[in-house]
Fold each of these.
Amino acid sequence: MVAKVTVIVPVYNGAESVGSCLDNLIKQTLKEIEIVCVNDGSTDNSLDVIGDYIEKDKRIKVVSQKNGGLSAARNTGIENTKTPFVMFCDCDDIFALDMCEKMVEAIEQNETDVAACGTEVEYEAHVEISDSDTNYYRLKFAGKNYINDEVTAKTDVSVCDKIFRMDLIKKYGIRFPKKLNNEDYYFYNAYMSVAQTIFFVNRKMYKYIRREGSIMSENFEANKYSPDHLLVAKKLFAFYKKNGFLKMHTDLFWNQFSESFWFSYEHSAKKYRKDIEKLAKRFIEVNYDKYEPMTPRVKRLVYMIRYSDLLHKIWRALKGKIARVYRKVNIAYKQQDYINRNIDKIEQETYVLTEKLENLIGRIKDEDK
């Protein structure tokens, strides 16, 4: 039996979860699959758990290496892939039982370079961003599409809800950036820049579990990882430039650069923010004139980065003035509210007194008669 697709499963101290992941993979309705587990220097008994599954199913292989991070583990998996197609599954997430079958069908029968499905998110942490996740992972297109800037920008960057062609990955040497987070962002955008077509499968077949302390969860907290988004954007620029993609897609890149800058800035500890600003401004200074954006909207995005320190000073000044005005207005509002409430009270009391007076006058008239 010749395998059609390889599923790469990076594992680092995943002894508690990798079993559930592998259970779903060995039960896939498509039997022609290969499962490559990359043991990324685990210090728990992950390797023993994987070994137990290898005894049950010879389609599972394991490659062990020193701890190098998620990107290094996935890259090792790519180097050990011999099939025409490749998919990725994190060891604490789950494929639907027919995901491999449906994704291979989508990319083969529609003759596309990539296929994507929907993602279901389960929350053990950060449930407060569920609305944002719902919109982000929602499929914005259906069926077969030619890849353009809109399709690239509006599709989620996760590699785990997609299937890729190995010949394109090999031809352009696409790999995940080592020792940097936001690795999916780089791989997805690099691949989409050299691909022509995509097919969207209208089903949620990948279950992503958002956990506390995971790399993805840490992206939403102020910590040392967030500057990586800007560094990844710089790497993406180099890939675009090398493969002749940049000149025709300057708006797409500068939009990506702007998103990466503001994510890095807003989600980083304060001590990193000056460094992020310097890095971004230096990059713009060197590359903007040669690769100037085409539309006024994107030009404004870059302008906001170039003068971010001035904009912040203006905002801080305005913020103080707005606060002072608000306090004054708020005091006046409270005073007016107090007056209005007392007017209402006086009107009510006057109404009651009027009724009593009318009753009294009526009784007096009756007695006079």
Amino acid sequence: MSFVGQIARRPRGRELPGAPMPSAEPSTPDATTAARGVGLMIACSLLFATMATFVGAAHQREPGLSTLMMSAIRSGVNLVALVVLARGDSRLLLGDGRRALWIRGVLGGVSLVSYFTALAHVGVGEAAFLNQTSAVWVAIFAPLVLGEPTGALVWLAVGCSLVGVSLLAAPAAGAAPGDAFGRAVGLFSGLTSAGAYLSVRRAGATNKPITIVFYFTLVAALGTTIGCILRQEALPRDPVTLGLMVGAGLSATVAQLVMTEAYRIGRAGPVAAAGAAGPLFSTVLGAVFLGQVPERHAAVGMGILLVSAVGLPFVAARAATPGRR
């Protein structure tokens, strides 16, 4: 079975006849497992950056294609890919139907639409920065929702990451400023993303990663498809554009599964901080494949993110585990 298939179908505890049911509460990971969660989040960030590069290339080929239609295509590809991975097993996709699954689905869907709305108003860089504020909300709410204290190293990683992302997101000279509505929606996407991430830890105690991702994908696909129908959005005219969006959907599917596993096994604070590697990877891929060369100050931001989003979360994950504080 492939690596993706292993993550998608990873069992929750013992599943032998007569074995006790796994606890509905998320367990506290040891140092090695917590560090592995951070590593998976960094890998997930690269996959999401790959998705963003596909989307950026599609937008360059067909600028008139709406972000809502792009989101609907991406979500539709996600849904088909998950059904294929599950081999049509409805029990695997639906899981135990607990409330945390629906919370993850609804908050994830709202976050996706909010993020794409912010993109249209303030641009890619600022929208990415505002969405990354999810790490702050995770750090604030993880002790209350999950009972996982947020240590000083996590706060340092989150704070430095926000500085680094803000340098990457700073508009170029002469760029038009974004409006207040776009910024407000962008911040809201960060808040709802945080709620979705925290619900992954809850739902992951008794459900497989593919189940958790399925609920998000189902809600997002239904919401964006209905939106496209109501607004009569046009489909892509260029087959290459459609191919790029399929690539975006497939990379997003793998990214969602890896991210779900990262939050399931890791500590929420360090994993969220490691998510700031996404804008770093997006900047590099955008420069290589799309010709979007960043400003000079972005190099400083990239250097900060190498430490705060790649290095510090590993240290924080090991330091925050029981017996190592």
Amino acid sequence: MPQDNLPKFPKVHNAMWPGLVGKGDGAEPFIDLDTMLDLTAAASVGGERFDGVDLFLSDPHISIDATSEDLARLTDKIRDRGFVVGSLVAPVWQPTGGGSAMGSEEDRKRFLKQVEKACVIGEQLRRTGFRTYGVIRIDSATGLHEWLQSPHESTRAIAETFREACNIAEAHGERLAAEGEICWGGMHSWRQMLQLLETVDRPQTLGFQADMAHTLLYTLGYNAPEDRILPAIFNWNDDVALQSALRQLASALRPWTIDFHVAQNDGTVKGSGSHDKTGHHCLPHDENGRLNIVRDAGYWLRDDNGALTKSVRHICWDGCMFPNEVMRRPETWDSILATMLAVRNAHSWQEAVHV
């Protein structure tokens, strides 16, 4: 097949969980999965569309206890819109049926059971040929305050639980990605995240999920001043210093990165509903956005010498906690898709796909 006709990677996905995260619980109402899929399917830029979606395995979108029949219906509704499925978020938190990865024996059993259920669903979707790439996303499901009570023992306990989760994932042919986010204990700074990954020491099964909004907060040391890379008083006009910080951060965590979220951030945090404060996601062209998205994505998608790593086969837009009114505008998704295509085109490769 001529090179020009080969499929282009990474594929471009949209996350469905912004319809759930930070919604309900006194905040704005949830946006149902069908609506999220329709908004994604309607987006188009120069005739190009999103390739697929990433899913949160939790009600009211998708039950973690979904039956084979439920998954068949899910597959039909996603396929009918021309999409495939990539990564899946395991609902490991206490409110969604899980428990802290460093908690009691019962907490950790619930955490692992949710991982197992997510891996079973992932395996079922993969066997149909409907899901050929992607990971199962996890985090420590514990807050920073709890972790700080005994940092060393807390990380040791999380690592032990993550190792057991790796055993489960391997039994189902899955890989796990731990999303670095300042609100999760033991994963709240880039150094602690790296230490946790190295302590687990299962690089073939457990990797890192880099979200551009969250990792920018890593450089600021928001919940770990001792690990900040940028100075406490930083002039955002100093683009040289910002790029240097992003390079240092990505150089440390890129070798572990197996899942990637494209996002914008204004250097602040936001919480909504039951979700703790974390990196504030912004629209791609927000006037206060601190990231040059296309350029800065390259720090994660290319190695220190500028060569493509090809370690992720799809990239996903994550825009959690946007107001519902913004999310329901068609132009929101056209703008996001245009940004995603620009990232892909700047950091893409082509290869034959063997079915």
Amino acid sequence: MPYLFFIRLSFVTFLVASLANHLLAEDDSLSTQVGFSEAPGSSLECVFSVDTNPGVSYTLLRSNDLVNWTEVSGDSFESTSSDSVEWERGGIATFFKIRASMLDSIPSQITSIDYPVHVVLPDGYENSQKRFPIIYATDGQWVTGGFSSAVTERKKQLILVTIEQGPGDRRAIDFRLPGAYNYIRFIEEELLPSVESIYRVNTSERTFCGTSYGGLLVGLVFLLDDVENPLFKNYLSFDGSFWSSAATLYSLENERYAASKRKNATLYLTSATGFQNNDRWVTNFQNRIESRGYEGLTVVRRSYPVEHNDVAQPSFDAALEFLY
């Protein structure tokens, strides 16, 4: 649904039209539409329509000179879903634009859960117009600190987004079947659109990352991603719990292979080899995928002599160096 606000000017139509593109230049990732209608008297009403996404805050800014911008008191909107709101403001030589920013969490209409999110931007992002590769990583409640340090210390030119599991042990529902089907919809329909409406993302360079149940989820996304227009290029699965719903997992793999023998992607599989590990199950999944001979697919396999709970960080560090 569109998010609407108005600009009222006592200028001729062509001047308003030329200003319209300039007014939203600050947020060039926003999806916008512009229309005009006659307002009372001699003024002209300029209508901007901006798509909203859950977990995003939209703030109205005012300027008299198109240089200095201030927030309009009381005119901010925190979106919890695709929504529609109207703002109507006027004044001669007064201009308005929207500033959009991520909230601390994204409320899902699909799973009915609020998921805290963390975003790490690369050095120089603010002074660049470049679109950056992006990594989406699950289990942000555990990995945010270590993963963000790895990215910043290595000065990787990418955006990192970590998503926490939500209340309780929600990951046990969202990362496993059948709950994973709805969680994958959350990723596709709510998480990605919200994040990528705010930040400049190279959508052909998306990576999805997870550990344990999250690693299982990565495998499911790998198999269920759209055959013709996949969302992700790289899939990082760390000590994935492929023993969970193994029969369904391999049934999904049969369906994926029947749909297409091509998969232009990188599947990065790691496992722990300490006392607690999923090494055997990761190897089984690796063997199944490699035996198919998917055209265009690169499979990378690493193992680490650590316990299951300690495998995420060394796996992520090595994957960063391999991919970026």
